[in-house]
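Narrative summary of target 7.
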Amino acid sequence: MRSLARHRRRVALSMVPIVLALLHVLGWVEWDVLRILDAWAYDVRLGWSMSQTRDPRIVIVDIDEKSLSQIGRWPWSRNKMAQLTGVLCAQQVAAIGFDVVFAEPDQSSGIEPLRRLAQREGAANPDLARHVARLAPELDYDGLFAQALHRCPVVLGYYFSGEPDARPSGVLPAPVVHSATKPPALRANPAWRGYGASIATLAQAAPLGGFFNSITDRDGVVRSLPMLTWYEGRVYESLPLSLYRLVTGMPAIHLDAEPGATLTWETGTVRLPLDERGTMAIPFRGKGGARGGTFEYVSAADVLAGAMSPKHLQGKIVLVGTSAPGIVDLRATPVAAVYPGVEVQASMLSGLLDQRFLRRPMHMQTYDVLLMLFVGLGLAWALPRMRAPVAVAVCVLTALTLVILHTALFLWHGWIIDSAAPLTMVLSIFILNMGYGYLVASRSRRELVELFGTYVPRELVREMVQDPDNYSMRARNEELTVMFCDMRGFTTLAERLDPLALQRFLNGIFTELTNLIGANRGTVDKYMGDCIMAFWGAPVPSPLHAQLAVKTAIQMVQALGLINERQRQASPEGIHTEIGVGIGLNTGQMYVGDMGSNIRRSYTVIGDAVNLGSRLEGLSKIYGVSIVVSESTRLLGSNYAWQELDLVRVKGKAQAIAIFTPVCEASLLTQADGDRIETWRNFLDRYRRQDWKACTTLLASMQPTQRDAVLIALYADRVAQRSALGFDFSWDGVTNFDTK
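Modeled conformation, tokenized:
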């Protein structure tokens, strides 16, 4: 009797993971960990399924580092683009797709100022107007590019944006379907707020267009592309789909009643297995890049230089895009951490040409529910009756069967079937039946308090204890914000105070500053003499880690001001030592975890991003400010008003970075401070252009304040030195620091 009751309780306990798995597959509750596991399994299967062969039908004309070096920085003038298009046309390509946007008119030729001058001086100098009129066709770079586009089978790229401040820009191509309301087949289509398309002159010359938006999953990886999307009563097609239709005779597009679309020719049809967002999984062929071997890459510089043999590209589909890191069109994909965005489009186009689709089978949800019920109920009934070794064998065999079945269906038929939910259910039923649930949870809580109790505030430890499985000391790579805070004037103070008094004073400051770090969800890494190192975003994740770090830094500066004021009031005859602070903040990818030796370990962060934070702290003294932050921290701290300090290249970093100092919260910015920041921005612009006369004038107009007196004096000295040297073509406006 007692045995039967225990069996029933274990069966009832096993129902918990079954119910949770059903809720997940039905979409009523989403478990992020299952999505991550499914994404990982998909990535592994995709890597196994890639052909690793070159597609000879598609060529990528790459605006690469070589092209930027020889022709100049991007964007290029439209006459260069016209020349590039003309060369490709002469090669008799099947189609050209531009994975770039030409959103603004090209005024680099100077024709518009000449026209205004001719209009103003026309009465006094009629010859000028005639000369300008004769020059106009040669200097109308947009017109030249439009003529080149008109002569070729071209698809212009554009993008949609869902940002709150997005606005329409440029001219959209003709839609492929009109639908006043969102079609049922696109019921989960993103809510676009605007778009960025080419200017009217170019859009009219090349009326075909396709958007090149990609879908970034929660882990930052691009696995799918939208093929169709709905915007303001119209359905638009993607760049790969538009190119595919162009080279296959422009089949009509029909939206199906269920998610999906059908392409119709007179000779037949092809069904695109779209999901309810209008997306399709990308059938990657290989690792990507010019060395990946999947597609032929031709440098745009070689095209313009005529380095290709005649007819080399005849009959091929050309995608014009970039792999240069500086233009920021690189994606993280399942097959490579750095993958050119243009090759993402090429991979989808290749899949369309081959009709090689990755899809979720019809009635996938029904299959998932039946699988959960059959496997889950079977294990819930059987495992309590089995000895531990047999139970282990049964669960392992069940899991292996599911993995092999789903992998085979993916490799043979391109079917995407999620395995994480049933596998997790099997594992959970096993663990619950073996009695580990309570023991593992209680032990995890005890270990969590012991491990993190000395690193993070008690409030965060209590928060972590609620879900201990999500926190560990294992090292991982995360985007965090690190702070280095160094005392100024401490050496002078140490000479005046005896050791015990100095200890009490320093401990008091550290206590106050540490409380501020803890109040803002920060983690104290270590104390190094008179320096504090802290970081935000771990062990408890926080999307606001940069903002919290900036807020803490400002509060620390204010707290030291109050401490100095108390010192002044307590010091006889005003004799005291001012304690200043230098703070460096940087946001980036860094390793966080329990590190050290077998003798002593600590929960800390390491990496280039951490080293850069230390370098920034050292720069605060040079620029005469209390806080110096990197560009990455400034971008995430959008609720503050910022003053740019310089472009610097610190020791150990080849790339220059912009550094900033916070002025105040953006909502508290006064008109005077705003004007001063704008004047300083104008000064830096003139400074980098080597317009020394304008720099001198702008500096003279700024009366130094206590906040920026050192900064203004520093730049006044620099301007004096640089102006004496004359214009330097090799100078890039970056200040190099060769010491740590």
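The first helix runs from residue 2 to 25.
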